[in-house]
Amino acid sequence: MGRFKLIAKAISIGRVTEKYPFVPLEVPEGFRGKPVIDPEKCIGCTSCSNACPPQALQVYDDLERGVRVVHLFIGRCIFCARCQDVCPTGAIKLTKEFELATLSEEDLHQFVELQMVRCEECGRPFDTFRHLLYSAKELQPWEREMMFLCPECRAKRISERLIFAKGGGGYV
Amino acid sequence: MFEKSLWVFHLNSGSCNGCDIEILNIFAPKQDVERFGIKLVGSPRHADAIAFTGPVTRECLPKVIEAFKAVPEPKIVLAIGSCACGGGIWYDTYAVIGGVKELYKILKEEYGIEPPTTIYIPGCPPKPEAIIYAVAMARGLVKQKQKREIYIEELDEKTERDIVEILFGEAKETRHFVPNITVKTDGGEDE
Amino acid sequence: MIIEILKGNDAKILRHDEKVILALVPNDKLRTTAELLFKAGCYYATGVGVDERLLGVGFSMYHIFNCESEKRYVILKAVASNLKIPSITPVISGANWAEREAMDMIGILFDEHPEPLRLILPDDWPEGIYPLRKEFHYNERPPKVEFKPPKREKKPGIMEVPVGPYHPTLHEPEVFELHVKGEEIVGAVYRGFHVHRGMEKLAEERMTINQIPFLAERICGICGYTHNCAYAQAVEDAAKIEVPERALYIRTILLELERLHSHLLWFGVAFHLLGFDSGFMHTWRIREAFMDLAELLTGNRKTYGMNLIGGVRRDIDEEKKKKVLEIFEKTKKETKEVLDNAVGMKELISRMKGIGILPKKEGREIGVVGPVARASGIDTDVRRDHPYAAYGDLDFKVPVYKEGDVLARFLVRYEETFESFWIIEQALDQLPPGDILNEDYELPEYAVGIGATEAPRGEDVHFVITEGGNKVYRWRPRAPTYNNLPAVPIMLMGEKLADAPIIIASIDPCFSCTDHMVIVDGEKVCRCSLDDYLGRL
User: Fold this and answer.
1) Which of B147, C52, C68, C307 measures 20 to 30 Å from C245, CA to CA?
2) Does C342 lie at the interface with A, CB-CB under 8 angstroms?
3) What's the CATH fold of domain A29-164?
């Protein structure tokens, strides 16, 4: 007898098939869709690439051109929103967009290229201007003196100073 | 070319089941993709399209190639999920080849097969609607939204100078900036 | 009692608390200790081979036993001397796969192992390269070697029915051959492990502790969150991290939500296999509501991505709570209607009744878990026996049936579905206030931790050794299907070929979880393990 009951049930429910794609689909608040980097806000600090489990977000330095490339490959993204959690400036956000199908893999990439600072001493690019500015805000003005040195030159200068500082000065 | 009913062969190359269940889901009442004439078929020889999931594991590779070759031309590949599109979370491990792109490379090099038309559907797993969107795209019902984006920051000398000014402007005023340098040159006089 | 057995066998107790006993057992006493533990009512959960050369120990094997009577896990550690450890498979057949896995991945040799064959690695993988040794890097890809499939003799009167790797009824790549005599199944050759993705190595080399939950979630696309939870619990156990109570409740809610969607999925598949396709459509229609709920609570339909070590990432606020209860009221009624309707259908019941019987004794020997065990009269449930998340505070029944047939497994899942509704309602009601994430912890060096959850398919055990900093030294998940698969041959014995799909599906197998292979040949059906959703659609 069960079968007839089911027919009655199916009639009483009516149509459940949604009209998508002819009618747009609403997704709930907090849906984890396509990640988008706001290039104006990104400072190239690499914390997203460190947190990204599938390494869909990679940050690498193009030393010849002196730019840092933040490269997001949505084709590998697992939509976990860890990048959004760790981004210090809120530059990367997961949108509600889920219609990501493309005919070419090329369309799945997003690049943000940020200019880098060259080290005062050795001339090697070592950090982005934006990240330098961002971290400088945290520092006291007198702590900023070695900001334009790359980590190696900075270490060198500190050790030099250690030698000159007669058993340790105020800054060492 | 693919405007009429697509017959789809589901090719799982070692995925986690997430995408596979979503593929079955689109045949369930809510999404019901059969209204577009799409049907899952059992044999690759009957298929027009491959619903490709998984990152292509090493064990699967020879079998995937066999099944791939069995689908007659012209064919269309729906690379469903992050694993198929770019290898997913395990794209570079020892047991995984890394998605359809790497598979196409192997097919080209070893068998001389040109890559077929491929629709990439990222998502982990993609919503059933995202798969329907891709299907509708193949049918020409909707337009592609996703685009490659490149942003290049431009810095002229003026902004560069400004940044230096912001960084060190106030430092100079507080006179802390200059004495530090003298510490070094003078041979370590404490301030 | 357990501790006396261990002490009586010269074991050195390394850790002893209310959750875990870890003991270093001398090699010559390993087999007797394991046998005594087994006789004392502990069943074999899994075995883990670890390359501990960096710790100055050498290669070691951890055998994990689930001791329900004392509500804890007992781990026996044995250190290989000259790469050799005595095998415990002769006394506990459940250890077979685990030991072969260690053989493949680490290169430990097990003395007197009955079938020391390759288990996990691909056929074209060169000999002598062990992926889980520390000198091997996760992204190395050794060159292919020629592989010749062994020759098999044709037996007269036996028909071989090949299924897979790509077959209309399979949605995962697995190969098996059914040997049938007339309509009766007499043997099977099975080759699984097509879905080996190198996760354990990836986790210990490339990933940090807070990235692995997302990897663990992708072990399986159906019951991913339970793996995610088990991993988080294992690390929290090793590092003794306090998890805020609210986070535990949220985990419980999501775990049960996952069980609901997984069971409904199974009902749909089972109905489909029984030729009741309208039932399939109805259950999957109802299931959509739970997928939408998951999307509302976590932001994604499947991979919830909610856990971090020390808590969860998203809160459940009042508005969401209200929405969940609203949807529940409707779906509970609908689920009941559809399932009751199915239970009332004579033709459906008679296709399930009395077929695929797994007796209690055999079930216990194999160590089956989850609904399969509960349908055979084995009263086991990790939620009750080793309370985790918020299950200790909540009230729920554990349905147990004695019959051991497909119908019993159907009814266990049927009752569990409604228990899940009840658990979520309670948890939402009692949701305590407070934080949801505790980030104030330090990872100890080389601490052992175990996390177990009751997945929709049964007990899911994760074993972790931490490395300190933000890395793990070794991580080993054990999915429930791993324990349930060896029971399938017993169920199949003497059944008709036409009933095979529903019998196999009745354990709700999941291959991407299990990923193992075993080759069986010949007349005895023993140890064949068959597929999955033989016809998920």
Assistant:
1) C68
2) yes
3) Alpha-Beta Plaits (3.30.70)
